[in-house]
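User: Hi! I have a protein structure encoded as tokens and I'd like to know what sequence might fold into it. I'm fairly new to this, so please keep things simple.
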């Protein structure tokens, strides 16, 4: 992109555009407050913060290329062809604006409406946080036909800005290495970065983003460039599904100064998948824009069906669940001052947005349906079938409603409940089989640990309609035990246990059962995952003992290490090794000591960082189409260990 000297917006982006909110010294003391955590999630968040600056340039129309490189030694370089961070002197701070941006928390052009109408970055902490948490960081700004360079160490300026050469380019290049004392033994994950970069490329139609991994001898390079934007996003999401209509419905425009894009397509599946974005932020908890979209869909489809006599009964009305069955949709809006709420701060709270989205989608969708009656008829027919299933499911659903606390007999008969009533202190274990359930019931702490044994493999929620799903005994038991209700009756405040722990055998069948449970939770009770209530227990694979000494190992390497330690490097045959193929093989005290005791157990919390990637993997592994699943298994077979023969 060539420099546009005639564009007044380009000229206005100078040091005067940079607003400063101080406080960078707090970042190194409490990094988790700014990036979520100092683990894998926080590490990759550093990259997103730098990329977000380039995306802001793209949203403003000043940038069309971004290159992200993972270098040797786990360095990151992000380069764009935007306007370049301002390099002139900042009047208030008395230093170049680029230095202000890199060293002052909440400093940047996104606080100046003249520089950016809208911007990404959920909390607006900016690249200064990346600087504060980096061992070193170097900046090159290509602006005014000159190359400007400066660099930092541990967030402090080391070499002040100087002009090092001439250039025809424009833009910014930031290179940094995270601080090993904060992110110990950390490595960047290609798949994690790829998911976010692909998502950004879909959301910003025409933007060209390149991801390069230079860590290996042979560099790995992928380019993400989607001229179709959200339409291609839907194609990507539905790649492993059967669409009801080949054409993706795409609407785009602006209502009350709020740019809005929506794309959707119906498939023959039984679940909905709606992804919502505000200023490129994935609002996984939804919010007012999602409410507006849902209201518009329900009303517009009902009105169209009534006008065109598509209801066989005059009293027929489609519910929101009916019109969203099998729906894959993406909505992306741009809001100048978004207000976020919810536990994960990814729920849009701007009240005016619901009406704006509702009105916009209703008008555009109604026009589309009138112009494409064949597609409209297929959607209505799909929704009517869902309505019939809803009626059939009503009786089964009654069984999942938990009555008042005085009617505790309504709880599942197999549930061994806990005595404490405070949900924040309680946890429930979903255990595979009656044998393991027996050991868990005997070994648990009855005060706060509940046990629900599940018999066999539960129904595959990816392939079952709601009526069939709710007629499954294991599904009904889980919903009833959780206490939250289901679908439109769901109420997180009624959750009876704040830890729901999936505890299955450490074998192939156990992994399959765990996946079936996760599929159900992701498709029908995603709020439990989003709010951090789902965990996976990690039972050991081996018990290693020498005399009265014993240790539990979770993999082969740990087993061999314990054998070596416990025999002092001597004869390994002195060690007795017990391989646990099932939880039922453990005595109650062994199950408590290894898997259920909060002081010694290891558990994994299930998170939903990327809803699009999660939807795709569940569709691939649990859906109807065989070929994508075969390809997935073939490509990942080399990573599989501990398969029982």
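Assistant: Happy to help. Inverse folding works backwards from shape to sequence: for each of the 645 positions I chose a residue that suits the local structure. Here it is:
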């Amino acid at each position: 992109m060539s420099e546009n000297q005639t564009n007044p917006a380009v000229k206005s982006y100078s040091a005067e555009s940079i607003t400063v909110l101080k406080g960078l010294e707090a970042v190194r003391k409490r990094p988790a407050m700014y990036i979520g955590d100092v683990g894998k999630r926080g590490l990759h968040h550093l990259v997103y913060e730098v990329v977000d600056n380039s995306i802001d340039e793209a949203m403003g129309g000043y940038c069309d290329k971004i290159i992200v490189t993972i270098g040797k030694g786990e360095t990151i370089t992000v380069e764009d062809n935007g306007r370049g961070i301002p390099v002139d002197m900042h009047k208030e701070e008395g230093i170049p604006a680029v230095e202000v941006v890199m060293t002052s928390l909440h400093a940047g052009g996104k606080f100046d409406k003249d520089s950016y109408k809208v911007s990404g970055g959920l909390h607006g902490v900016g690249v200064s946080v990346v600087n504060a948490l980096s061992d070193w960081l170097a900046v090159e700004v290509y602006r005014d036909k000159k190359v400007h360079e400066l660099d930092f160490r541990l967030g402090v300026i080391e070499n002040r800005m100087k002009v090092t050469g001439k250039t025809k380019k424009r833009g910014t290049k930031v290179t940094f290495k995270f601080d090993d004392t904060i992110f110990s033994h950390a490595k960047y994950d290609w798949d994690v970065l790829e998911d976010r970069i692909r998502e950004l490329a879909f959301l910003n139609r025409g933007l060209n983003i390149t991801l390069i991994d230079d860590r290996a001898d042979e560099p790995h390079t992928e380019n993400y460039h989607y001229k179709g934007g959200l339409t291609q996003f839907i194609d990507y999401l539905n790649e492993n599904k059967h669409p009801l209509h080949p054409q993706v419905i795409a609407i785009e425009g602006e209502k009350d100064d709020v740019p809005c894009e929506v794309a959707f397509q119906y498939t023959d599946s039984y679940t909905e998948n709606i992804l919502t974005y505000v200023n490129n932020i994935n609002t996984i908890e939804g919010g007012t824009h999602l409410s507006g979209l849902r209201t518009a869909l329900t009303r517009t489809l009902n009105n169209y069906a009534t006008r065109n006599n598509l209801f066989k009964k005059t009293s027929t009305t489609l519910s929101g669940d009916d019109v969203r069955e099998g729906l894959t949709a993406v909505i992306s809006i741009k809001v100048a001052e978004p207000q976020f709420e919810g536990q994960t701060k990814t729920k849009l709270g701007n009240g005016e947005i619901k009406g704006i989205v509702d009105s916009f989608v209703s008008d555009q969708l109604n026009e589309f349906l009138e112009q494409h009656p064949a597609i409209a008829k297929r959607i209505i027919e799909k929704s009517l079938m869902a309505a019939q299933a809803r009626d059939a499911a009503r009786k089964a659903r009654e069984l999942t409603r938990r009555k008042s606390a005085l009617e505790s007999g309504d709880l599942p008969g197999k549930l061994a409940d806990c005595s404490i009533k405070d949900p924040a202190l309680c946890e429930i274990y979903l255990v595979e089989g009656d044998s393991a359930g027996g050991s868990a019931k005997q070994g648990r702490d009855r005060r706060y640990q509940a046990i629900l044994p599940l018999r066999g493999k539960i129904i595959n929620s990816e392939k079952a309609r709601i009526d069939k799903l709710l007629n499954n005994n294991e599904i009904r038991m889980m919903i009833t035990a959780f206490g939250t209700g289901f679908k439109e009756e769901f109420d997180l405040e009624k959750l009876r246990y704040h830890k729901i722990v999936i505890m299955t055998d450490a074998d192939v069948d156990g992994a399959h059962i765990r996946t079936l449970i996760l599929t159900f939770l992701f498709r029908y009770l995603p709020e439990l995952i989003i709010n951090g209530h789902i965990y996976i227990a990690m039972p050991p694979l081996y018990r290693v003992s020498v005399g009265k000494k014993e240790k539990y190992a979770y993999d082969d390497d740990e087993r061999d290490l314990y054998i070596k330690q416990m025999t002092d490097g001597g004869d390994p045959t002195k060690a007795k090794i017990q391989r646990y193929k099932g939880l039922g093989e453990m005595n109650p005290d062994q199950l408590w000591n290894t898997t259920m005791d909060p002081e010694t157990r290891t558990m994994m919390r299930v998170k939903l960082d990327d809803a699009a990637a999660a939807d795709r993997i569940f569709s691939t592994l649990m859906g109807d189409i065989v070929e994508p699943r075969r390809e997935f298994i073939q490509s990942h077979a080399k990573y599989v260990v501990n398969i029982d023969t």
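A useful reference point when you look it over: Confidence is low (pLDDT under 50) at residues 1-9, 400-409, 638-645. Feel free to ask if any position seems puzzling.
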